Amino acid sequence: MSVSQSRSRAVLPYLALVAAFVMLPLGTAFSKQLFPLVGAAGTAFYRVGFAAFILLLLWRPWRRAWSRQELLSMVAYGGALSGMTLCFFMALRTLPLGITLAIELLGPLAMSALYARSLRNLLSVCLALGGVGLLLPIRQDINSLDPIGVGFALAAGAFWALYIICGARAAQVHPGHAVSLGLCFAALIIAPFGISSAGVSLLMPSSILLGLVAAAISAVIPYSLEMVALRSIPKPVFGVLLAAEPAMGSLIGALWLLEALSLSQITAIVLIVLAGIGAVSRT
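-> C-alpha cells emitted (283 positions)
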C-alpha cells in the first residue's frame, strides 16, 4: 500500500464524522416537526424504529453467525442508543436545541477527560468545553430552565458517553451489521414508551411518511457514518471532536443562510478547531 493510500484511509473516518455532523442537526430540526403529531417519545420510536427497518433490509445481519459476546455488544450499543435518543427528545420538549446540546455534550467531554492519557488530551477537552460554552446560549439564567428538561439532557449526555464506548466495541463487527442490529434492539427498548405515548397517532400516513424521512436523515446516514468513524478514531478523540457539531451548525448558518457570526462564535470555533487539532495529533 502506498503512502498516499495509507493517508487516505487514515483521513476517511474523520471525513465520515464531519458528514455525520452535517446530517445530525438537519435531521433533528426536521424531526421536531413530528412533536405535535406523535410527541417526543413517538418521534424517538419513529427515528430508531424506521432506521432499524431500513438498515435491516439493507444489510440483513441475520445472514452471519453471531457469537454470544458480539450479541451482548449489540445489546449494550442498542441500549445506549435508545437512552440517548429518548432522553434527548424528551429534553427538547421544554429546552431549546442549543441548550439541550450544550448540556448533553458534557457527557462525551467528561468521558474524554477520563480517558485522557496526556496533558495534551486534557487541554483539548478544556478547549472544546470552552468553545461549547461560548458557542451555545448556556449563559442564560439557570432558573429559567426547566429542571426536568435539564435532567433529561444530562441523562442523554451520560448515554451519549456510553454510546461512544459501546459503539467502539460494536464497531469491531461489520459497521452495517452493527448499526442495523443495534438499532433493532434500541427500537425494542423505546417501543413501549413510544406506543403508550402516541398510540394510534403512529399509524397516520402523514406521520409515517415524515417519520421515514426523519429516520433516514437523522439516524440511518449519521449513525452509519459514526460507526465507520468509531472503528478507527480513539474514544477520547471522538468525544472531543463531537464539540465540533454545534460549530458546524454555526458555520452552515453563516455560509448557507448568510447569518452573521458574532465574535464569541468565531472565538468558539477557533477554540474547537484547536481542540480538534490537539486531540487528533499523535493518535
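The longest helix spans residues 3-31.
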